[in-house]
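CO-FOLDING WORKSHEET

Operator: S.A.
Ligand of interest: 2-oxoglutaric acid
Run index: 281
Mode: holo prediction, single chain
Checklist:
[x] sequence pasted
[x] SMILES validated
[ ] output reviewed
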Amino acid sequence: MRSGMTFQVRPVSGSIGAEVYGVDLSTVDDEQFKEIHDLLVRHLVLFFPEAGGLTPEAHQAFGSRFGELEVHPFLPKLEGHEHIVVLDSDKGAKADVWHTDVSYVKHPPITSVLQITLTPEAGGDTMWSNQYLAYEALSEPMRELLEGTTASHVFAHPQGTFRSEVEHPVVRVHPVSGRKSLYVNRMFTKRILQLSRGESAALLEHLFEVSESPQRTCRYRWAPGAVAMWDNRATQHYAVNDYTGRRVGQRVTVMGDDPRGAEPRWPHFQEGAMAATVVKD
Ligand SMILES: O=C(O)CCC(=O)C(=O)O
Ligand SMILES: [Fe+2]
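OUTPUT RECEIVED:
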């Protein structure tokens, strides 16, 4: 375990994710916020096993340190809390396709903060994958081919209540770390627009496989009340649907930036900009 300025940090895999101990998320001061932020950019997913169940107010307050909170366009909300999405397996919330959150809008969220309030007896883990490493695993000619290409990201609600389609770069540059990451996902990305339909379908399938490869992932076993937060700009995630019984989570989501390259949203970070840990294949 590595001791940071104030916290203890334990990586959970060789390529992405770290547990953070010794922090009370309901009383984070400015210095602690900066440390958490830097750890998030470095490890891409942080786990707080000791969070012990944040109140809705504390959950929102912590999320809003990172920016304005999103009101999700259609997912169910916690009563009286429009910024807290409720993910209840009994109501069909099983995110068992690899994705980045809400990539079908113009400014996809920067980060999501999820606490699991009810865990099944066994199973119900979540996985994350590192999309810097996915990009870096591509050959040089493939990277050159993808440079400047864009893809459509689409979501159409089955009941016709919501539809959105946007175009994002296939490779994006993280505004804080400056690193490139692969930005296509199996749930929402439909087509690389500069390629023929057939070329796009074949290449997207390959890119999804690279994005989802186990060697670039971590897998987290939840205890009730644990909290995870991820950098949605350089990761994907997947909720393993291997359980019976009920599983419930609550999520706040921080409004996003422009994947085409935007001003850093957290300028203070620029001074000590660090590259996230590089783990090559
Ligand atoms: O249920 C989970 O573990 C993750 C669900 C999900 O995709 C999300 O909260 O964005
Ligand atoms: Fe998600």
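REVIEW:
The helical segments are 30-43, 56-64, 131-136, 140-146, 197-212.
The pocket of 2-oxoglutaric acid (ligand 1) is lined by residues 87, 95, 101, 112, 114, 126, 237, 239, 249, 251 (CB under 6 Å).
[x] output reviewed
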